[in-house]
């Protein structure tokens, strides 16, 4: 008997409801607000969907904790404890949502004792429900997922993003890493505009690797389980162990390609998710 089956079923059901809300609002909800920079966007739909998820989960699991993108933006703590914790990105790919670019996901991860237990990523506009449960595999619309078997980086497709930091020094590092990777050479580079969906694409075998610095725990928690349960690995961009709060991720089909890619990445360290202003005393 799986102790978290009920919670996972609830996550799938609420992600579907949330996805309907997102789908109905796409290209209609144009009240765009800003967060950390003029390119870090948020809409009323992000807030509405997060409230819907938190309310629905709280009714069923009143003792569980939350880390939600919009709650943290509103000043709540982003602290991972041993308690059962739902890590929620109501709209992953908000910029896509605003522009009607078709990769937008509701992302719900779940941890116990700080370990990822399950992840649900619903690609609302494609109607694709990705799920991963520790020890039980990952699926898209019920079909089992498996990472690519490719071992040669020069035969691979690599996904990354530009993020929302436009500091020229950071942008130079991003381009430097991309240039090195492109010139290995690789078959191509892509970016869906949603960290969660880039990772689901690794799990599905359509790209071999996705890396990014600047993401948050709510962008990668759910998809992290989906990648590992599809046979992939999570690493830090320096090749070390993945740390959910570090804002750095490499999701890859195999160690050989992971090791090759991290050698090309210019590392930098944004402020950790668990070291935001609300954690300073
Ligand atoms: C976004 C990611 C995107 C990444 C941005 C941001 P949001 O999430 O999914 O891939 O490049 O840095 O984190 O803000 O749309 O939830």
TrEMBL record:
<dbReference type="InterPro" id="IPR020550">
    <property type="entry name" value="Inositol_monophosphatase_CS"/>
</dbReference>
<dbReference type="GO" id="GO:0046872">
    <property type="term" value="F:metal ion binding"/>
</dbReference>
<protein>
    <recommendedName>
        <fullName>Inositol-1-monophosphatase</fullName>
        <ecNumber>3.1.3.25</ecNumber>
    </recommendedName>
</protein>
<dbReference type="InterPro" id="IPR000760">
    <property type="entry name" value="Inositol_monophosphatase-like"/>
</dbReference>
<dbReference type="GO" id="GO:0007165">
    <property type="term" value="P:signal transduction"/>
</dbReference>
<feature type="binding site">
    <location>
        <position position="219"/>
    </location>
    <ligand>
        <name>Mg(2+)</name>
    </ligand>
</feature>
<comment type="pathway">
    <text>Polyol metabolism; myo-inositol biosynthesis; myo-inositol from D-glucose 6-phosphate: step 2/2.</text>
</comment>
<feature type="binding site">
    <location>
        <position position="69"/>
    </location>
    <ligand>
        <name>Mg(2+)</name>
    </ligand>
</feature>
<keyword id="KW-0460">Magnesium</keyword>
<keyword id="KW-0452">Lithium</keyword>
<dbReference type="GO" id="GO:0006020">
    <property type="term" value="P:inositol metabolic process"/>
</dbReference>
<comment type="similarity">
    <text>Belongs to the inositol monophosphatase superfamily.</text>
</comment>
<dbReference type="InterPro" id="IPR033942">
    <property type="entry name" value="IMPase"/>
</dbReference>
<dbReference type="GO" id="GO:0005737">
    <property type="term" value="C:cytoplasm"/>
</dbReference>
<keyword id="KW-0963">Cytoplasm</keyword>
<feature type="binding site">
    <location>
        <position position="89"/>
    </location>
    <ligand>
        <name>Mg(2+)</name>
    </ligand>
</feature>
<dbReference type="InterPro" id="IPR020552">
    <property type="entry name" value="Inositol_monoPase_Li-sen"/>
</dbReference>
<keyword id="KW-0378">Hydrolase</keyword>
<dbReference type="GO" id="GO:0046854">
    <property type="term" value="P:phosphatidylinositol phosphate biosynthetic process"/>
</dbReference>
<dbReference type="Pfam" id="PF00459">
    <property type="entry name" value="Inositol_P"/>
</dbReference>
<dbReference type="InterPro" id="IPR020583">
    <property type="entry name" value="Inositol_monoP_metal-BS"/>
</dbReference>
<keyword id="KW-0479">Metal-binding</keyword>
<dbReference type="GO" id="GO:0008934">
    <property type="term" value="F:inositol monophosphate 1-phosphatase activity"/>
</dbReference>
<comment type="subunit">
    <text>Homodimer.</text>
</comment>
<feature type="binding site">
    <location>
        <position position="92"/>
    </location>
    <ligand>
        <name>Mg(2+)</name>
    </ligand>
</feature>
